[in-house]
């Protein structure tokens, strides 16, 4: 299946592509990474609110399998880090959500915006990882780094605002 973008029918026929393309969210014609991040957030919040322990287990499994899912999806498409592969965005936003100072709507919005900004802008070391590390691990790594930077930014902003007020 060497083509650049699969159809939804092809996603349904391939569990790897279905996961890689975030249950179809990666097929969005505009901003598939943003659409994938939003779906990832919406799917994860009920789990996180029900059981933080289960949420950590899901994140760990998604991260461990993510390199294979992203790498295999890329191989199947014949395109490295296809923009529609959004499993890495799922993992990134899940990590940010789990590390928020509080579980509130405002922090969820802050998490979404901060993660998208750092994932799109790719400041160093995110840009280095994006350019230097190949394969499924590379696809995952830049989003995990974007998540870590977003977490640091959110916590620094929270501490600064609490200090000011």
Provide a descriptive summary of the structure in words:
The protein is built from 8 helices and no strands. The chain has about 160 residues and is mainly α. About 75% of the residues lie in helices and about 0% in strands. The protein starts with 7 loop residues before the first helix and ends with a helix.
Draw up the topology in text:
Elements lengths: L7 H6 L1 H6 L11 H19 L1 H26 L9 H12 L6 H17 L4 H7 L2 H30 L1
Helix pairs in contact: 3-4, 3-5, 4-5, 4-8, 5-6, 5-8, 6-8, 7-8
Q: What structural keywords apply?
A:
single chain, about 160 residues, mainly alpha, 8 helices, globular
What quaternary form is this? single chain
Give the terminus-to-terminus CA distance. 57 Å
Low-confidence runs of at least 5 consecutive residues:
none
The DSSP helix count reads 8
Compute the average pLDDT. 94
The best one-word shape is: globular
Bin the helical content. over 70%
- Strand count: 0
Radius of gyration: 16 Å
Based on helices, strands and strand pairing, what is the structural class? Answer: mainly alpha
Sheet with most strands: none
In N-to-C order, the SSE pattern is HHHHHHHH
Strand percentage lies at under 5%
How would you summarize this macromolecular structure in one to three sentences?
By secondary structure, this protein is mainly alpha-helical.
């Amino acid at each position: 299946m060497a083509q650049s973008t699969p159809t939804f029918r092809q996603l349904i026929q391939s569990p790897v592509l279905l996961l890689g393309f975030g249950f179809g969210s990666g097929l969005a014609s505009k901003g598939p990474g943003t659409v994938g991040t939003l779906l990832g957030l919406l799917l994860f919040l009920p789990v996180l609110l029900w059981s933080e322990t289960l949420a950590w287990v899901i994140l760990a499994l998604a991260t461990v399998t993510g390199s294979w899912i992203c790498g295999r999806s890329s191989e199947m498409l014949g395109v490295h880090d296809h923009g529609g592969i959004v499993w890495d965005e799922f993992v990134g936003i899940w990590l940010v959500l789990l590390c928020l100072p509080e579980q509130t709507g405002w922090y969820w919005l802050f998490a979404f915006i901060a993660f998208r900004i750092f994932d799109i802008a790719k400041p160093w070391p995110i840009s280095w990882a994006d350019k230097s590390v190949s394969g499924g691990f590379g696809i995952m790594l830049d989003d995990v780094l974007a998540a870590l930077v977003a977490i640091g930014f959110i916590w620094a902003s929270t501490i600064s605002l609490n200090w000011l007020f």
